[in-house]
Design brief:
It is a single chain. By secondary structure, this protein is α+β, with helices and mostly antiparallel strands. The protein has 2 domains: 160 residues, nmb1532 protein domain like (Four Helix Bundle (Hemerythrin (Met), subunit A)), CATH 1.20.120; 99 residues, Jelly Rolls. 52% of the residues lie in helices and 16% in strands. It is built from 7 helices and 8 strands. Strands 1, 2, 3, 6 and 8 form a 5-stranded antiparallel beta sheet that branches. A hairpin with a 6-residue loop joins strand 4 and strand 5. The radius of gyration is 22 Å and the shape is globular. The N and C termini lie far apart (66 Å).
């Protein structure tokens, strides 16, 4: 007899989607949990490389989207329910604590990602079992808290229309990213900024920095994750992880948003034959440190 499989939840069921994401996270965490012992026995073989690739792919792309589902959509919607029937006074503190845990978990990922990237490329790396074990335990506790303290309250607090808005936002977050602009041929790097972090982001990058004709800029992430978007046209946006770079063409205001703890630099490009010194200087002048 052929057993029927339960259909996977869709975006019309955002809570079901979040629970399904947790199950996928648990599967990747289990893969990571087995990896240190496998490396001791077998070294960096094909199985180790594929395991590291699977873990990296999930926690650098899918996991940040999941955190954004909660921090940008679900948690704010629940906070707005204060005073409704079904609201518990403890929920406000629980939501705040869980959002803070996301940042701690992302910082923990930063301690593992370089070794996992090396393993994914087939290179030896010292993946320390105690570090892995501590991060796994923290992630599992976090998911358990969400599933016992938060998700059971959703149906009692949020209306069908509110859930539909959350589901639509989750779906939009998973649409394919538009193609990034590309640096044109014949340009050369003219200036590289000192690193920026989430604590010293210039006001121009928060509100919309723009370069004049002939000056391109490229955002290069050194640590953490950064989202950047163009404020003109259809406002496409991209998420960059450590090691990624995102170009911005002249005349397009762009906004940079660090997602938690992050560090990035800007590299400014001009035509190799020069002629853009004044425009470059104006672009740099507008990046004076924020007073905020």
């Amino acid at each position: 007899m052929k057993l029927s499989r339960t259909p996977a939840p869709g975006f019309a069921d955002p809570v079901g989607m979040l629970r399904a994401c947790h199950e996928r996270m648990r599967a990747r965490l289990a893969t990571l949990e087995r990896l240190p012992a496998h490396l001791v026995r077998h070294g960096v073989d094909r199985a180790a490389q594929e395991a590291a690739q699977a873990v990296v792919a999930y926690f650098e792309r899918a996991a940040p989207r999941h955190h954004a589902d909660e921090e940008d959509d679900l948690f704010p919607a629940l906070r707005a329910c204060a005073g409704r029937p079904g609201w518990l006074p403890s929920l406000a503190g629980q939501l705040e604590a869980l959002a803070a845990e996301h940042e701690v978990l992302e910082q923990g990922w930063e301690t593992l990602r370089l070794d996992l990237h090396a393993l994914a490329a087939g290179c030896a790396a010292a993946l320390e079992a105690p570090t892995v074990t501590a991060w796994l335990a923290a992630y599992r506790r976090h998911m358990e808290r969400e599933e016992t303290e938060i998700l059971p309250r959703v149906a009692a607090l949020l209306s069908a229309s509110e859930l539909a808005r959350i589901g639509a936002a989750m779906e939009a977050r998973r649409l394919p990213e538009p193609a990034q602009p590309a640096l044109p041929p014949g340009v050369a790097a003219r200036h590289v900024t000192a690193p920026y972090t989430e604590t010293d982001l210039p006001q121009a990058l928060r509100l919309g920095h723009v370069t004049e004709a002939g000056v391109w800029v490229c955002i290069t992430v050194e640590q953490g994750r950064v989202r950047y978007r163009l404020r003109s046209g259809t406002r496409p946006e991209w998420m960059l992880a450590a090691g990624d770079a995102g170009p911005v063409p002249p005349g397009h205001p762009y906004v940079v948003e660090p997602l938690g703890r992050a560090r990035f630099r800007l590299t400014f490009y001009c035509a190799a034959n020069g002629g853009c010194d004044a425009a470059l200087n104006r672009a740099l002048t507008t990046l004076a440190p924020s007073e905020a």
